[in-house]
Specification:
Layout (H helix, E strand, L loop, with lengths): L4 E6 L4 H13 L3 E4 L10 H14 L4 E6 L3 H7 L7 E3 L3 H9 L5 E5 L5 H13 L6 H19 L3
Parallel strand pairs: 1-2, 1-3, 3-5, 4-5
This protein binds D-ribose.
D-ribose (RB5) binds next to helix 3.
Length: about 160
């Protein structure tokens, strides 16, 4: 089986955590596409959120991880993209539920809100937990219908 392709991105607030998470992903044997940022200079999170979300939305990669200070800005950006289901996770429960119920394809982390070891545990669970399907597929299908309607007509 070919390794899972995963895109990762952050702003300046998430840089240190991104490097830690990349080491973990390598240990899991994943293929990582790092979309930056790569130094500590102050940058705008939408620029990095866009790159990773685009890669997931287009199918270039299976999954993405986004990190900013709180995870809030990155969540707002990522969930604008068709087909993206970005989940901001703070603990092992939200990591697990994000996969089981929401089929999360982008994990969002807040570097200023979540301790590095907890973030690593969140990533491990998010990678290993499958989507449960069944009634949750119906709910995700409803989200896709809303998305298609808004893409077709815009907001009237
Ligand atoms: C940057 O200071 C901070 O605003 C950003 O990392 C993020 O938390 C935005 O939502």
């Amino acid at each position: 089986m070919s390794p899972m392709k995963i895109a990762i991105g952050c702003d300046h607030a998430g840089l240190q955590l991104k490097e830690k998470i990349k080491e973990l992903l390598l240990r899991f044997g994943m293929e990582i596409l790092d979309y930056g940022t790569t130094d500590g200079c102050s940058v705008d999170y939408p620029d990095y959120g866009e790159r990773v979300s685009d890669a997931v939305s287009s199918g270039e990669v299976e999954r993405g991880i986004l990190i900013c200070g709180t995870g809030l800005g990155m969540s707002i950006v990522a969930n604008k993209f068709p087909g993206v289901r970005a989940t901001l996770c703070h603990d092992s429960f939200t990591a697990r539920m994000g996969r089981l119920h929401n089929d999360s394809n982008i994990l969002v982390l807040g570097a200023r809100t979540t301790d590095g070891d907890i973030a690593s545990e969140i990533v491990r669970i998010w990678i290993e937990t499958p989507f449960e399907g069944e009634r949750h597929s119906r709910r995700l299908e409803k989200i896709s219908i809303i998305e298609a309607r808004l893409n077709e007509k815009g907001r009237e």
